[in-house]
Amino acid sequence: HAKSAGKGRYHFFDSQLESRVRTRQRRLDELRVALRDDQLLLHYQPQVDTATGRAVGVEALARWQHPVDGLLPPAAFIPLAEEAGLMPAVDAWVIRRACREAADWATQGVALTLALNVSAQSVTPALVATTIEALRESGLPPRLLEFELTETALLHAEDTGVVDVLQQLAALGVRLSIDDFGTGYGSLLYLRSLPIAAIKIDRRFVQAAPGTAQDAAIVKSLLDLGRTLELRVVAEGVETAEQLALLRELGCETAQGYFFSPPVPGAEAVRHGRVEGESAAGLLPDAAAAD
Ligand code: C2E
Ligand code: MG
Ligand code: MG
Ligand code: MG
């Protein structure tokens, strides 16, 4: 009896596994169609100056408007795309779309930096080509563009050509930042050799900081590190006034999180960032000359 029950159980797991494999395969096929048919879209989360409360930039975050299942978060498709090696295609789509949208805002007088997430898989010479093309197509000034990489993307940076790619991006004027800083690869060696402009303190540190002196000390030391190495430091995942107060006390200049705004459609995000015509003038030299 035990044997047949066991067998039945295996059948059960087999068919469960089978249907999961089928579901993933279907999602993957759908994702290829989504890329082709522009079913992806971008929401933008403001990055805020902690002193003035004004937005200084936005981070673009991908969503998938699925024809049947509705609006899907990155967790529903990015791991899958990563597994299938599709992230370069996703990131290329995001870069082109985001540059176009941000260039539009700039012509409307909105001066915001545009941060984009770039998967480890995407850091190849094709990324440089895509970036050059997206900047040229859109007219967005490179200095408004920032690529967020995770520490994992830098894991084998020395011997994989990643260094060359990052140096070429930096040479274009694109800034590089380290996302989820302090949660990934346990080496800081890359900070000595790579053109990194900013680090983003992972929300787990930010959210724990008001709790205990030790947690606050971690955030403080990351801010000290940033100051010493002349890196901009952005605190992620700020949800409460208490977290913000502590960050200001510790001298953190830029923060991002639900306390200010969740990621929202572009039109809504840029309302936070509209600036006076004068300070926006010259943002887009070509557009300004055409006026
Ligand atoms: P990330 O780049 O670290 O982005 C921050 C994530 O935290 C976003 O989740 C954002 O909605 C969420 N978040 C922001 N503020 C708060 C807060 O106050 N509290 C909490 N609990 N969460 C907050 P989202 O949009 O679901 O994106 C998740 C991850 O997916 C991103 O993490 C990024 O690693 C990846 N991702 C999103 N879009 C893209 C993309 O276009 N390309 C690549 N390569 N990765 C992307
Ligand atoms: Mg990010
Ligand atoms: Mg992050
Ligand atoms: Mg992340």
UniProtKB/TrEMBL annotation:
Residues 24-277 form the EAL domain. This is EAL domain-containing protein. It comes from Novilysobacter selenitireducens. The chain holds residues 417 to 707 of 713 of the full protein.
